[in-house]
Amino acid sequence: MRPQPPPSEVTVERGRAVVLRWADGHLTELPLPALRRRCPCVACHDARAGGGVPVAERLDVAGAELVGAYGLALAWTDGHGDGVYSWEVLRSWCVCATCDPAAGGGAEAPAPT
Ligand SMILES: [Zn+2]
Ligand SMILES: [Zn+2]
Asked: What's the structural domain count of the chain?
């Protein structure tokens, strides 16, 4: 497996989602609660093993920082901020019709243009 090159564009839509434009033109939109729940830090890893990561109702991104070629560090308004999301992982979470036809509407979904 080749390493995932960094996206050409990272947009944090406050209160909503992180949008990644990859070098190959693909677009991945990840809702903030989903990202927070999947935080890759050790504490959240343990929390998931114990039943789940608590996600604040009015969750937002307090800060986002590119970590070189590796990934994206996100700090949250709930005070959490230890997780660095690697580009591979972020891309693998894409649930667009191309990456995950089941989530994109199944066989009825129109072909992506
Ligand atoms: Zn965490
Ligand atoms: Zn996709």
From this structure: 1
Query: Looking at residue 59, which CATH number applies to its domain?
Result: 3.30.2020.30
Model confidence pLDDT, tens digit, residues 79-98: 999 899 999 999 999 999 99
The pocket of ion ligand 2, defined by CB under 5 A, consists of 94, 96, 98-99
- Please name the residue ranges forming H helices in 25-112: 32-37, 42-49, 87-92
29 belongs to a structural domain: yes
CA of 29 to the centre of ligand 2 (A): 8
Domain annotation covers residue 1: no
Report yes or no on 47 lying in a domain: yes
Q: What is the largest CA-CA distance in the chain?
A: 42
Q: What is the pTM of this model?
A: 0.84
